[in-house]
Design a protein that fits this description.
The protein is α/β, with parallel strands linked by helices. It has one domain: Luciferase-like domain (TIM Barrel, Alpha-Beta Barrel), CATH 3.20.20. It is 42% helix and 20% strand. The strands form two sheets. Strands 1-2-3-5-8-9-10-12 form an eight-stranded parallel β-barrel, surrounded by nine helices. Strands 6-7 form a two-stranded antiparallel sheet. A hairpin with a 4-residue loop joins strand 6 and strand 7. Helix 2 runs parallel beside helix 3. The chain is globular, with a radius of gyration of 19 Å.
Amino acid sequence: MRFRIFTEPQQGASYDDLLAVAQATQRLGFEAFFRSDHYLRMGEGTGLPGPTDAWTTLAGLARETQDIRLGTLVTSVTFRHPGILAIQVAQVDQMSGGRVEFGLGTGWFHREHTAYGVPFPHKRFGMLEEQLEIVTGLWNTPIGGTYNFTGKHYTLVDSPALPKPTQDRIPVIVGGGGAKRTPALAARFATEFNLPFPSFEDVAGKYAGVRAACEEAGRDPAELSYTVALTTAVGADEAEYSRRAEAIGRTPASLRADGLGGTTSEVVDRIGQLAALGAECVYLQIMDLSDLDHLEFIASEVVPQCD
């Protein structure tokens, strides 16, 4: 099992907070640092110091980390035009020496759009499909060539399709629980399929749906990585676990039921269940970014038992 750290900075974090977590992620041997792409806090609280932009953050971290992968779960198609997004992601990939991974989704949080004057179309799946085609098409256009696209949502004419990423192929993450369209989109564009916060009972079936979509599209299902993201709080004993769960506004019982919550042995067992269901990597959603001891504990007590 592989492990990545996944953060939600819109809940209240500065760039310096994120830098501290990213550098701890690197120092402790986790594979990657990921962040959400949101502009408004969810739930109660002020959200201070305010939102940080996902790709601005990753550009900074690209220069202040050395080894870890960097990416989004997930960038929203409503926030950026695809041509500009392709430039941003390719530039951050260059700045990081080829360590970027690109998650893209439809977006869902209507209120953050109205708060910052961002249009929120009722139907967005077509936008997602076109953006995936455009962004990857721009990156894959040979140097010296041009890229053209005409769709329902976007039109590109004689684009020089620059800059190019450092990586030959930036990993593309598609995720979600849709039964038909999402698996088909993953089979067409993705290198990774991610299930965000699923019920354990649904994991195997959702992965099977993506594998079936790959086979239907004539693609080897083994070309994709199958991953999951879950809210995480772990403690050496019940008291420490309860403190960490309550610090992020969760009851110990609820987090045990739908996340990776509990004492070390409990969480190791849950991760073992995910592995048996076909998950190859877990994004550990860490909500309390001030608790770096939590990362230390997971790295020293949980990860070694999940090899």
